[in-house]
Amino acid sequence: MLWVLHSPHPMPQDLLPQAKSGYTVLMYDLAIIGGGPAGVAAGVYAARKRLKTIFVAEVIGGQSTDSQDIQNWIGTPHLVGMDMQKMFEAHLREYASDVLEIHIGERGDKVEKISGGFSIKTNKGLYETKAVLIATGGSRKKLEVPGAKEFEHKGVTYCASCDGPLFSGQDVVVIGGGNAGFETAAQLLAYTKSVTLIHRRAEFHRADAATVNTVVAHPNMHTLIDSSPVEVKGDMFVKSITVKNEKTGELSEIPTAAVFVEIGMIPATQMVKGLVDLDEWGRIKVDGKTQRTSTTGVWAAGDCSDGIYHQNNIAAGDAVKALEDIYFWVKATPEGEKTDLALTAISEKKSSLTA
Ligand SMILES: Cc1cc2nc3c(=O)[nH]c(=O)nc-3n(C[C@H](O)[C@H](O)[C@H](O)COP(=O)(O)OP(=O)(O)OC[C@H]3O[C@@H](n4cnc5c(N)ncnc54)[C@H](O)[C@@H]3O)c2cc1C
After folding, report:
1. What distance in angstroms lies between residue 137's CA and the mean position of ligand 1's atoms?
2. Pocket of ligand 1, beta carbon within 6 A
3. Which ranges constitute the DSSP H helices of 217-342?
């Protein structure tokens, strides 16, 4: 369904056919951009709270739909990615009724501040909304050496929480010396025989010293500094990784059953660049209590935000938290107080109201 009304905000004529006839799209309460666990959880809650919502997602399901064995989704020990995708869409449509407008196959390109809210420019139209939830996730930076693509899902993996237990009792390698690399190593040390962490520099500047010290102290932990991966080798599955010492140029081959890649995420946040504060990796900075961003009226949830941990349950939980806050902001916060309330002030006010 489409809400069409006269709006005080003129639209570019080429983007909206209805604008040519003097009509423009009604201002929605909320625009959700992104169709992974964060976006879908938000969509379900928005519909149940009867917020007039537009849901825009290029694809539904999120990053783990590629996986044949999604684990940790509470209530389902194992789930095939495509099944998760179908379940997400069915759940969303179940509650959509007349309040949630679902646009799958549509890409959000730009979010801008306008009087009274935000405009959302997509590859198919232009919409206006009072509040925005960015749930666009991201993609893992891929290891680009010979063998890395060939052995993806055959020992080369980008998710330790998902695939780690498959390598119980075996020797494994982690690539990346930042926090994510060390946290991955810490998880793997619980059940693997040994973990070798490969880092291209001499120091672990991008990881917390406390985490590094704890992990490195483990008797089954090894680190290779000043080293870069050169090639992943194997037959049906990964068998070894060749590593180059950046100082000496010497090559060595490390036997391993798995290569866990933690060399960074590429967050999909281009559309809000300049609108909200991003961290040095381009992730949206949020207040962890409410998922609010630095711009009043914009929330972010899941892997596109600067949360430390990346899991389906976490993304969904972030979004539910955001929706509770958005509902309160859209429906229960007086107009005059919407623009200048500090992030914590509104959370505290909510607590006092609900206590
Ligand atoms: C291979 C792999 C396996 C994994 N396995 C597990 C697992 O077993 N268990 C687990 O808990 N976690 C797993 N994870 C991690 C988990 O998938 C992520 O933490 C989670 O998907 C993050 O959800 P999200 O909603 O924040 O973002 P994403 O899942 O990244 O979803 C973002 C969504 O937004 C859409 N989108 C992006 N940009 C735009 C745009 N501009 N306009 C419109 N739509 C847009 C995308 O199409 C996508 O639908 C895995 C990750 C990977 C890569």
Report:
1. 5
2. 33-39, 56-64, 66-67, 70-72, 107-108, 135-138, 140, 158-159, 161-162, 268, 271, 302-303, 310-313, 315
3. 312-327, 335-338
Q: Which tens digits make up the pLDDT trace of 166-197?
A: 999 999 999 999 888 998 999 999 999 999 99
**E strand or H helix at 175:** strand 171-175
H/E stretch holding 128 reads strand 126-134
The label of the residue with tokens 């995708």 reads 85
Distance from Cα 76 to the centre of ligand 1, integer Å? 18
Domains for the chain: give ranges and CATH numbers. Answer: 3-139+265-354 (3.50.50.60), 156-261 (3.50.50.60)
* CB of 225 closer than 8 Å to CB of 199: yes
- Which residue stretches of the chain are H helix? 17-20, 37-48, 81-96, 160-163, 179-189, 209-216, 312-327, 335-338, 343-354
User: Is this prediction's pTM over 0.85?
Assistant: no
- Give the span between the Cα atoms of 57 and 35, in whole angstroms: 5
